[in-house]
């Protein structure tokens, strides 16, 4: 792929820029991470959600998002920010409902990209761009899907245990990688991925990232050809052995 001209590099040491990941726009956005005195336990929580998943977002608000407030009050976690991460919908009724939802709750971030499954890597890149610009000093980022229930006390205990492990990404996965599907939901063509297996990667449903990984992961997105599956791409290929 040819290098893009005139686009700033997140980290020049990662190679030529081939993906323009610095120009995302956010029609709906949340507040930047508030100022905090780092205790090594500050966290931003990003919930990836489809535009029409209103019920799932409300269930999270009524359950584990609400429980986060208790941990914050008890000083067990410093909640620096929370956002449901959406892309665009071409349904005007759904978009109007999203705009009303944002006015009520103030916890939606909408990225100006089409929201469909094979755009997930781009969606996470849009999240990383926002974190890079608006939340750079955070200690941890939890990226989780909207069909996952988070035990927030387990999360707090994990953060306290591993808060000194900089440049680390935590989650469940297969250390042996896996085999690319050539048909079905997770189909990938030989042109997109000519190799017989994937590198080891972390499953994308729930990933905890140390804040020090934001810049290198984002720089890797800028310099690594995109592929549609965010877990293989972000937490396998881009994660690699980079520091």
Protein model, in words:
By secondary structure, this protein is α/β, with parallel strands linked by helices. It has one domain (17-238): Spore Coat Polysaccharide Biosynthesis Protein SpsA, Chain A (Alpha-Beta Complex). Helices cover 33% and strands 17% of the residues. The relative contact order is 0.19. The model has no long low-confidence stretch (mean pLDDT 91). The longest helix is centred in the middle third of the chain and has 15 residues, at 120-134. It is built from seven helices and eight strands; from the N terminus they run E-H-H-E-H-E-H-E-H-E-E-E-E-H-H. It has helices at 54-62, 64-74, 92-105, 120-134, 152-162, 214-223, 230-238; strands at 42-48, 78-88, 108-114, 140-145, 169-170, 173-174, 201-202, 206-210. It has a six-stranded mixed sheet. It has a two-stranded antiparallel sheet with strand order 6-7. Helix 4 (120-134) crosses helix 6 (214-223).
Question: What's the helical proportion of residues?
Answer: 25-40%
Strand order of the largest sheet: 3-2-1-4-8-5
What is CATH's topology name?
Answer: Spore Coat Polysaccharide Biosynthesis Protein SpsA, Chain A
Shape: globular
CATH architecture: Alpha-Beta Complex
Query: For the residues shown, what is the average pLDDT?
Result: 91
Low-confidence stretches: none
The helix tally amounts to 7
Q: Which structural class do the helices and strands define?
A: alpha/beta
Please indicate the percent range of residues in DSSP E strands (runs of 2 or more).
Answer: 15-25%
CATH class: Alpha Beta
Strand/helix succession = EHHEHEHEHEEEEHH
* Biggest sheet details: 6 strands, mixed
The number of distinct structural domains comes to 1
* Alpha carbon gyration radius: 18 Å
| Cα-to-Cα separation, first versus last residue | 24 Å
What is the number of beta strands?
8
């Amino acid at each position: 792929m040819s290098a893009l001209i005139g686009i700033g590099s997140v980290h020049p040491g990662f190679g030529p820029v081939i993906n323009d990941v610095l120009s995302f726009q956010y029609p709906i956005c949340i507040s930047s991470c508030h100022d905090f005195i780092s205790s090594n336990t500050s966290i931003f929580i990003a919930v990836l959600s489809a535009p029409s998943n209103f019920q799932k977002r409300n269930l999270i608000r009524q359950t584990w998002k609400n429980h986060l407030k208790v941990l914050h009050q008890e000083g067990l976690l410093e909640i620096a920010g929370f956002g449901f991460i959406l892309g665009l919908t071409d349904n005007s009724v759904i978009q109007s409902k999203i705009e009303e939802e944002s006015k009520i709750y103030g916890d939606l971030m909408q990225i100006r990209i089409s929201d469909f499954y094979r755009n997930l890597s781009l969606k996470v890149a849009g999240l990383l761009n926002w974190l890079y610009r608006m939340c750079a000093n955070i200690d941890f980022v939890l990226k989780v899907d909207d069909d996952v229930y988070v035990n927030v006390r387990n999360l707090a205990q994990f953060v306290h245990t591993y808060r000194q492990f900089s440049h680390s990404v935590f989650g469940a996965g297969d250390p042996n990688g896996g085999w690319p599907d050539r048909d079905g939901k997770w189909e990938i063509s030989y042109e997109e991925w000519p190799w017989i297996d994937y590198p080891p990667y972390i499953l994308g449903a729930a990933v905890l990232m140390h804040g020090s990984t934001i810049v290198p992961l984002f720089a890797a997105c800028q310099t690594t050809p995109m592929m549609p599956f965010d877990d293989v791409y972000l937490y396998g290929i881009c994660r690699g052995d980079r520091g």
